[in-house]
């Protein structure tokens, strides 16, 4: 379904990611929609240390649990390194930079297409102008040849023959 003009798209992944990052910086608090978060983590193959599985019947996940999992994963040499902590402002800036890069790419593509269309139009215009000039030159040459043929025999054809 196309977006409605009065609606705004929401990046649910970014909202959840920001909430998880925020939860790791405070000693208390909760993450809501644990079943959704757990399902997304499983789908993305995010490792959850043994004994730290989220209960899917809970209403929320305690921030202490998120922090414990994060510390466990950070200290486990067998796991890929976790992203460094970033503040909500840094996260917002990263999203804005990503959005701006996409916009620049879109504008570059539009500009390239426009330049190609303009180039094609100019080539056609030059070709048409060249054809017009050649036709005029042929007409002028034909007219001059006719005038030369029609000159009386005693008249000099060159100005310096007088």
Characterize the structure shown.
With 162 residues, this protein is mainly α. It folds into two domains: 12-85, no CATH class; 88-149. Helices cover 60% and strands 4% of the residues. It has helices at residues 12-23, 34-43, 63-75, 88-150; strands at 30-32, 60-62. The protein has a two-stranded antiparallel sheet. The longest helix has 63 residues, at 88-150. The radius of gyration is 38 Å and the shape is rod-shaped. The mean pLDDT is 75.
N- and C-termini, Cα separation: 89 Å
Order of helices and strands: HEHEHH
Stretches where pLDDT falls below 50 for ≥5 residues? none
- Please tally the helical runs, counting DSSP H or I stretches of 4 or more residues: 4
Radius of gyration: 38 Å
Please identify the oligomeric state: single chain
**How much is the average pLDDT?**
75
What is the percentage of strand-forming residues? under 5%
Measured as a percent range, the helix fraction is 55-70%
Shape: rod-shaped
Q: How is the largest sheet built, in terms of strand order? A: 1-2
| Biggest sheet architecture | 2 strands, antiparallel
Number of domains: 2
Tally of DSSP β-strands: 2
Computed structural class: mainly alpha
């Amino acid at each position: 379904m196309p977006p409605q003009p009065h609606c705004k798209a929401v990046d649910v992944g970014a909202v959840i990611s920001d909430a998880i990052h925020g939860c790791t910086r405070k000693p208390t608090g909760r993450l809501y929609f644990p079943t959704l978060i757990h399902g997304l983590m499983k789908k993305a193959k995010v490792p959850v240390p043994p004994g730290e599985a989220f209960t899917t019947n809970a209403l929320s996940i305690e921030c202490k649990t998120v922090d414990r999992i994060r510390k466990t994963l950070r200290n486990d040499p067998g796991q890929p390194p976790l992203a460094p902590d970033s503040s909500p402002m840094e996260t917002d800036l990263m999203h804005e930079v990503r959005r701006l890069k996409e916009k620049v790419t879109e504008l570059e593509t539009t500009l390239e297409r426009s330049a190609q269309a303009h180039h094609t139009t100019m080539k056609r215009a030059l070709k048409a102008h060249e054809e017009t000039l050649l036709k005029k030159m042929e007409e002028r040459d034909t007219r001059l040849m006719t005038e030369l043929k029609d000159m009386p025999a005693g008249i000099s054809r060159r100005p310096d023959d007088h």
